[in-house]
Amino acid sequence: MKKVKLFAYLLVYLFAVSACDNDDNDDNLVGEMDRNFVIAAADGGMLEVRLGEMAQERGMSQSVKAFGQMMVDDHTKANNEIMSIASSKGINFPATLSTAKQQKVDSLMARQGMAFDSTFANMMINSHKETIALFQNQNGTGRDAELTNWAAGKLPALQQHLNGAMMLRDSIRNMTNP
């Protein structure tokens, strides 16, 4: 009888311990961090593509149009890569821009001529600074190795984009203020 009681207590203890196990919560938290990265990276990437398309259509200078084409090409490729990774991990990829990013598109849409070019260049600088910070954060704190490695691999190109956007801004300033 003592053995039966001991066995029963042991079973109750094991069930209680397994119910209190919060490893699943840690996994969900880690998953949420990586999920948030994917959503933010997708939002930023879609913004870059949309602004790049607008630059090709509405840009005054050839350098703005060329930079816009580079944004479309590079960020479409990156978006496709992260979409594939996200899909393999069951992360839903956003279909549309966030409200904040759409407001940036709307703001640029209201500009014309050299004001468009100048605003585009400044948006590229700000957007790439945000994106670099996001990717550096994922590289330092992300839990998913595939996403973290992907983010780290994109940082050099993002830095080149930022440098190019700053050069673009400076060339636009020189054209408007000779």
UniProtKB/TrEMBL annotation:
Superkingdom in the source lineage: Bacteria
Limits of the DUF4142 domain: 34-168
Pfam family, one: DUF4142
Signal peptide bounds: 1-21
Keyword check for Ribonucleoprotein: no
Keyword list, A-Z: Signal
Annotated protein name in UniProt: DUF4142 domain-containing protein
